[in-house]
């Protein structure tokens, strides 16, 4: 019931966009949200879920086929207890063997699902911004939104270089990962974080610098990302009601002059000189998937 309480409180507080996926908890996220939505009027929220990424098992982690895509949507609707979702997205397109399958199979299947009234809009998600650009350039299916992660943060603002293209294409931009998957926190990232050692060290030093100023780097990071104009949706995960309340306070307050000064200082002192500010294709999962696919083609 904890997850249900968080969702209900979020909607009561004015949050109206809910993001989930089969991959999150391998269905547990959709199930929990589905239970919560039973007590919330359908017109009070928009909900997005995804297809194509499912488990941590390499055998079943990614599947962009038409058959699995349709099965996934039907299962998501069942778990959510809904007749339709507002947005259906292809999860992490950069892990596909190539983008041809996305263009020729996954997207046309989603268009059929939209035509059937089981979804309203189609989206694609990727950490790799150029993958989003290529799909938008090649797709004959109308794509309504793109979702990327950690591409407008105190560390990396590469998203701004792609925004004119996305806006020209008429797609909505959704951003997540203001905390850089834990980099921009006092706790620091998990061991699996794919960033290189220089980036991790710079983020740690930035957090320590914020401590000396008695400022929470996480607060600055969230406010910095949320201040980006042209991105109407910033996704921020919350694990508890307390985190929800804290984040609501953060996003509803403007950055002070002191905050802006510290932001400029840490960006200049710790991140401006980094040779690499992202981890595109640095994720070990890419190599694992490549090896798995090569082995299973033999």
TrEMBL record:
UniProt organism field: Armadillidium nasatum
NADP-dependent oxidoreductase domain segment(s): 3-267
GO molecular function terms listed in the Swiss-Prot or TrEMBL record: L-galactose dehydrogenase activity
Source domain of life: Eukaryota
InterPro entries named in the record: AKR, LGALDH-like, NAD(P)_OxRdtase_dom_sf, NADP_OxRdtase_dom
GO CC list: cytosol
Listed name of the protein: L-galactose dehydrogenase
UniProt-listed Pfam families: Aldo_ket_red
